[in-house]
Structure formats: C-alpha cells, structure tokens
Amino acid sequence: IVKSKSEIIFKTVLAIISGNFMHGFLNMVMYFHLYGFSTFLSGRRTIPDVWTGVNLTVTLQGTYYTLIVSLLFYSILTLITKQRRGLALIIILSILFSLLATFVMGNRTIIAIILISFLLNFILYSFFSGVKIQSFIKSISLVAISATIIYILYTNNILGIREFIEGSTWYMRTNTLTTSEDPRVSLYLKAISQIFDYPFGGYRMNLYSYSYVHNLWLDVLYATGLIPFFALCLYTIKSVVNLLRLLKQESNNIEFKIFIFSIYTGYLLNFMVEPILEGVPYMFISFCLINGMIKKKLDVNNEKNYLIGGNNENSLANEYSIT
Fold first, then answer.
1. Cβ-Cβ contacts under 8 Å for 166 (sequence gap 6 or more)
2. Of 236, 226, 321, 225, which Cα lies nearest the Cα of 284?
3. Which of 55, 105, 193, 226 is most deeply buried (CB count within 10 A of its CB)?
4. CA distance 124 to 260
5. What distance in Å separates the CA atoms of residue 171 and residue 98, rounded to the nearest whole number?
6. What digits encode the pLDDT tens for the residues 201-259?
7. Is the dihedral of CA 44, 48, 49, 52 positive or negative?
8. 222: Cα separation from own chain's centroid
9. d(CA 72, CA 236)
10. DSSP reduced 3-state for 314
11. Which residues on adjacent β-strands are paired with residue 57?
12. Rg (CA), the chain
C-alpha cells in the first residue's frame, strides 16, 4: 500500500485516526442516549462500546481520542498556512468533542497528551522553520493572550464554562488525586524492582491488587518476561530512529513532518500509561502499520538516491511498492 509519496501515508494514517475517533464518538453518543447528558459520569467509570456492548473503562475509551487530540498543533498550523483548512476545522471540532468526553469521563491522560504534544510540536516547528526571536516572542504572546481569554471565560462563567468544568468527573478527580498519588507511579516502580525476579514472566509479579502495570513495555515484561520485553524495547527504539530519519529528509514538507511526529507522540504517550496489548491491541497493530509505511518510504528514498541521487519523489520511487 506504500509508495514513496507522502500523500499515500497521510491518507492511510488519517483513515486510522478518523476510525478511532468515530468509534469513540459513537460510544459517547450511546452513553448520552442511555444516561442523558451530564458532566458527571453515572455509576462506574465505564462507557458502553457501540459494537460489542461491553463496558469499557474510561481510560481505554480515551485511547480512541489519543490520535486526534495530538493533532492540535498541526490543525492550527494548516489553518495559518491555509493548507487543508477544511480538514483543520474538522480536526479542531473533533478535538473539542474529545475534550467534552474527557471532562465527562474524568480522563486526565488526554489533557496531558494535548499539552505535551503541542509543546513538542512547537519546539519541532521552531527548529525546522528557523523561527527568529521576534516570531518566537509573537507566538508566546499569542499563547498568553489565548490563555488569558480562556481564564476570563472560566472565571466569569461565560457560556457556563466554569459550571461545566467544575461539575465534571475530570474536575473532581483532579482535585482529589494528584499525579504523585496516581497508582501507576507505584506500579511502575514495583514492576521495575522485580524486573529480574521473574525472567519468564507469567503474571507472577506482585502488583498489589492490580492486574496490569499500565505501561506497554512493563506489561509485556509482566506477562512474557525479559526476552519479549527487550525485543519490544528494541523495536520501539528502531521506530523512533525511523521517525528521526523521516524528519531529517528534505523531500518531506514541514506539515507532513509535524503530522507524523504528532501521531508518534500520541501513540508513545498512550503506550506509557495504558495496558495496550491487553486492552486495545489494535492500537499497537496500527502503530506497527504506520511504522511499516514509514520504513518503506525511507527504504525507497534511500534506494532512489543511491541509483540516481537527489530527492525527487516522482521519479523511480513510483516503481516501488509493497503488497
């Protein structure tokens, strides 16, 4: 499915993002249909799945929004550069719905992904575009102005924003549970302290009363032992190296680089805090698919440059594909 053209990768990744978001969107629509619209989650922190009818924990439900919310910086960039403006508006509307769902579910991970992804993308864009100090100050000023407007809207309860947020599950959990009190931190430390105690896994670690470590790599260690754990770590490192190689290629425009970097950031941040292979294995499968497309693009470009030199994507590259 991959040739050397970035557009094929872009459309395929966009289809994955859209599918994930629509799944999460339909789940929330079903929840509101069953329990009515409320900012506070009714009963247990679970959301019914529209396809299976099984109740999902809100953390797994949040994974459906991971990829779309990581595109906040990309959507703003495309609006400013007037490229794909319609797509940018759709992404922003989708992010707003994701935030609505996040406040209802009380999922703090999505907020963290938005902030971290936006900051890293801003740094990356500044590096590639050679932002001058004046432009940097202007960008910071715009962020400060936006934050001030949000603060005024919140403190004065304009459009009922303050009432909505303070009545949400997210606000309640944020005020009653600090990051240092998150059980994930204790689970990570506990798993790492037992890393060589059970080299063949087998779910034998002492994780208090929890069934998962809530971390992709440590959950693999917990289930299958050291060999798959180190293999997965090597695969992850190789994937990040391929991402860096893609970012270095001059043939890729900055919008495409920001797009792919955003998606990788969203994936990896989510992998750090959820039992991916146990709960949402298709997230890892789609990550592998995207890795394969990026690797193929890199291989095609390398062979093309070896044969004829240059960075023109439209020459020999079109002769290479995988099925």
1. none
2. 236
3. 105
4. 12
5. 16
6. 999 999 988 889 999 999 999 999 999 999 999 999 999 999 999 999 888 889 999 99
7. positive
8. 24
9. 24
10. coil
11. 46
12. 21
Say which amino acid occupies 104: V
Written as one letter, the residue type at 18 is: S
Distance CA 114, CA 172 (A): 20
In this structure, of 42-46, 235-239, 283-287, 296-300, the range with the lowest mean pLDDT score is 42-46
CA distance 146 to 124: 21
**Cβ contacts of 214 within 8 Å, gap of 6 or more:** 183, 184, 187, 273, 274, 275
Q: Which two tokens stand for residue 116?
A: 């971290």
Tokens in use for 108? 């703090």
Q: Which pair of structure tokens corresponds to residue 69?
A: 């919310």
Q: CB-based contacts of 216: which residues, under 8 Å, 6+ apart?
A: 232, 271, 272, 274, 275, 276, 277, 284
Q: What is the C-alpha separation between 41 and 62, in angstroms, rounded?
A: 14
For the chain, the straight-line distance linking the first and the last C-alpha, in angstroms and rounded, comes to 6
Distance CA 9, CA 307 (A): 23
- Give the Cα separation of 61 and 104 in Å (integer): 12
Q: Tokens standing for 53?
A: 């009818």
Rounded Cα distance between 144 and 45, Å, is: 34
